[in-house]
Amino acid sequence: MNLVLVGINHRTAPVEVREKMVIQEARQAAVLTDLVRREGIREGLILSTCNRTEIAVRADSSSEPEHTLRRFLADTHHCNLELYETHLYWLRQREVVEHLFRVASSLDSMIVGEAQILGQVKQAALIAREAGALQGELHDVVEHALAVGRRVRRETAIGVASVSVSTAAVELARSIFGSLEGKKVFILGSGKMSELAARSLASSGARDILVSSRNYDRAVDLATRFHGEAVPFDRIFHHLAHADIAICSTGSPHMLIRKSYVEELLSARKNRPIFFIDLAVPRDVDPAVDELDNAFLYDIDDLGRVVQNNREQRKREATWAEEIVQQEADRMMRRLESKELAPTIVALEKRLQSIREGELARFNGRLAELTSDQRESVNALTQAILSKILHGPVSELKDAAGRPDHSTLVQLVRRIFGVPD
Amino acid sequence: MYSDLLWFAVAFYGLAIILAAPSAARGRPTFSSASVAAVVLGLVLNGAALIADAQTLHRIPLTGIEAALSFLALCIAAAFLLISRAYRSYGVGWLGALVLPIVFLLTLAAALGTRSARDVQVLADRWLIVHSITMILGYTCVFLTFAAAVMYLMQAGELKSKRPRSFYRFLPPLEVCDRLYDQTLVFGVLLLTIGIVTGFFWAARMWKGSWELDPKILASIVTWAIYAVLGSTRLYGRWKGRKSAYVAIIGFAAVMITFLGATFLSSQHGFFPR
């Protein structure tokens, strides 16, 4: 098995370099067909997204695919590859397996945990399969990478925690209300922050949006953008009674929403929960509101802390995901190597067996006077010697599966026993 | 036959817990399909054990405490599967974390119990069968109300803390807890009412002396009163949130006292007629 991957990504190259290396999806099938026709290349995969272009190949064990790949890249992009040499990274064997697993798990993404990459890997595998460029060990690796990506999604919260204030607000709202569909959102004040938060809420299903601002025109402007409704500022308390989520960001110098008012509000809404997102500085909502049972209040600092917390959580989740990747890479390597091992063991056995048979044939004349019983014993004796000799190297080879020196050992055994490649 | 089947049910419920344990240990109980499949198998075997028991006894086998426990486990496991299907887009992992150990312990207790092959004539009465089935279904509902209340308190606590730990994502949203709470409470109160009324009829016919003063009957009236009050305050919407969650937990404690505690205090009620 000879796996090599060459690539360029958001860490090694700026966008003006990456864009030159993109291989559009429509071209990929043709490019792959060209790739696998080249000398020594058995399988190929192209993964080309806005953050990376990577080419993974499986080559004949005797060939050196680096050279072929260099020429292939130069041909595909009609460029002088030396200009980009510093941006390229080259990976071999286990590194390729680990890397593909990390990519599929979104650990190598610009935004760690983003969900698109798994679909992109899947699509790349599909194209390569249909082009006939993916059918052996590399195919197994890619399929396993997809499984690892799914496992990481399932078992870690790597993609769950929101890392911006507005998405964190949405996440909190979901923990209170579940689905946001049919929930009423009241935007108080027309600042940039409240607009961002409202946008996130609206894209998560909140359809019913009311806007109120001291500046009525701006309220109308904001309301039309969200297909909502503007209400006059002096009527806010009337409308607030119907809201499930209130986003406050007025420029008011004192608190607008007092605890006693929210108490009335809750009793009017039969204690259905209400969520205040206070983005204003100075604050619009009395912090004492949070003491009420079914009122939830997050001010700008609270949200900032949630985001900070989420970032740390993502980091923790990423270390767990890395562990999963290592585990799975170990498993994959063992599987690949034991697959590779079988032909070596068979060839080794065949080689020794042919020596034995050759020698027996050579001595045939001198053994002719033996009785059939004695002949049988000679046969069994030579067979036993052969088995004893085989036992050492075979068990050593099997033990080595998964170890880094495995390939060297295979080559060594083959050479010592004169087993042809 | 009966106890073999029941032991297999115990094994599969246990397997479901083991399969879900690694994720639960990390504070994010997620139920893999393997774990759910184990629950389903446990449920089938649990049901089969009850059917086998009914066939040997030639009647509905709910008069022994073992059968009652294993029927309760069956109902709770079935309800868990139904709820996790209905609310699968929300975190129901914690519900499983609360429910499955209980199901496992109930079946284990049922399997360990020595069944006395009693066939008391009075126990075959039709009122009694209705009474025991509705009571157990009612217990299932109020157990789920309790679970919903616990999840509500956990979720509300995380949200109020302002620094929600990562497991809050694996809890159902507050409104989902509330919905589950309301639905199970309504059915629970209804079933417990039917169960208690049928129990009165049976007791009035069968028992001599002042059966009204039997500890288990008194305890069940207190329990019923707690739930009836809770149900009506919920209907009027005055008591949403943490307050009613605490009451549901107290109510469930009362149920446990009634179901288990009073069984041993009662002279003639319960599962050990003396």
Secondary structure layout:
The complex is a heterodimer of chains A (421) and B (274).
Chain A: E1 3-9, H1 15-21, H2 25-37, E2 41-48, E3 52-59, H3 65-77, E4 89-92, H4 94-104, H5 116-130, H6 137-155, H7 165-177, E5 184-188, H8 192-203, E6 208-212, H9 216-225, E7 229-230, H10 236-240, E8 245-248, H11 259-268, E9 274-278, E10 295-299, H12 300-362, H13 364-367, H14 372-400, H15 406-416
Chain B: H1 2-25, H2 33-57, H3 65-86, H4 93-112, H5 126-161, H6 174-206, H7 215-236, H8 242-265
Helix pairs in contact in B: 1-2, 1-4, 2-3, 3-4, 3-5, 4-5, 5-6, 5-8, 6-7, 7-8
Spatial ordering of strands, largest sheet of chain A: 7-6-5-8-9-10
**N-to-C SSE series of chain B?**
HHHHHHHH
Give the fraction of residues assigned to helices of chain A. Answer: 55-70%
- Major sheet of chain A: size, sense and barrel closure? 6 strands, parallel
% residues in beta strands of chain A = 5-15%
Indicate the mean pLDDT of chain A. Answer: 86
Rg over CA atoms of chain A: 33 Å
Q: Please identify the oligomeric state.
A: heterodimer
Domain unit count of chain A = 3
Question: What is the helix tally of chain B?
Answer: 8
C-alpha end-to-end distance of chain B = 28 Å
The fourth-level CATH homologous superfamily of the largest domain in chain A is Glutamyl-tRNA reductase, N-terminal domain
Number of strands of chain B: 0
At the fold tier of CATH, the topology name of the largest domain in chain A is Beta Polymerase, domain 2
What class do helices, strands and sheet pairing of chain A give? Answer: alpha/beta
Outline type of chain B: flat
